[in-house]
Specification:
Helix content: 40-55%
Strand content: 5-15%
Shape: globular
Distance between the termini: 26 Å
Length: about 375
Amino acid sequence: MRWSPLLLSGLWLGVPSLAVAAPDAFSTCLITLKAQAGKQGIPAERFDVLTAGLTPDPSVLPLLDAQPEFTTPLWDYLAALVDTQRVDDGRARLIEHRDLLARVSAEYGVDPATIVAVWGVESDYGRVFGKRPLLQSLATLSCEGRRQPFFRGELLALIKLIDAGDLRAEGLTGSWAGAFGHTQFMPSTYARIAVDGDGDGRRDLVASIPDALASTANYLKKAGWRTGQPWGIEVKIPAGFNTAQAGRTQRKPLADWRALGIVPVAGGTLAPAGLPADSTAALLLPTGAKGPAWLVFRNYDAIYAYNAAESYALAIATLADRLRGGPGIVAAWPTDDPGIGRTERRELQTLLLARGHDIGTADGMIG
């Protein structure tokens, strides 16, 4: 669906550049793309206008194999994306946009906390859209790297959106991989899923918060969101549990998990409010048997569809829980060096600055 909120929030430290297509090869690639665009109804003149002056950006290529969702320890990933500041800001957004969220929730069946959690993880509530010129990034990835067919489709989808008037090419920026706007849609997803949430006749996920939040809810609805049901519950596993039974695709009836000794970490029932008694669930042990564990339900799968990474889905789900007033993750991580959030980072940076270290500003960001 989209790529790397950690990269967008400035937490990525950077990687060396790789070789990119030479200018002549890049120009030849654009000629090939123009022919493909013509077959999809994009006039050659329009393609030329939107790609005029484009040069390849070699810095995007290493990022294809450096997704923080897959390279960062889960405790660091969640500490960065589900910190006190993001929780407080999200609760403020729930109040600020109460009427809008109530309307969107009524129309699409997705609760306000989940919608706002996606917004918070994807762009820090509209603060961080990404600074890479979208046309340049997508053109580069269309002509070099291991996923050229995928990115060619995204580039052509973006050109169509601009040509249709939904977006303006001038100043259009986003992530290195082409995701953009408040909730970081890829262009092809934008074309299929985005809706006009403010009634102005355009689908603008960059400048319109109503469009962005309604589109996010529409995405989750189409991904199978079940109104009024929870995403999951934190649980404990018994000693000696066979961890081969864990995994998002290994679903069992709740009664089977109960018989295996799985119990809620906070007590109570394995069937939270709103969940049908005959529901099935999968067990997640993302850091092994000694770390936090969850039973997850169908709404977790809908979140996972937004970006297919367990760490990402858990960030959205646990942030939504915190926005509802929940306590957060109960079990300890299997490490003696758990991650810290931006508030704690700022405190450390302030101490370093006071001791004369040249680290820039105390902004809570790394890199």
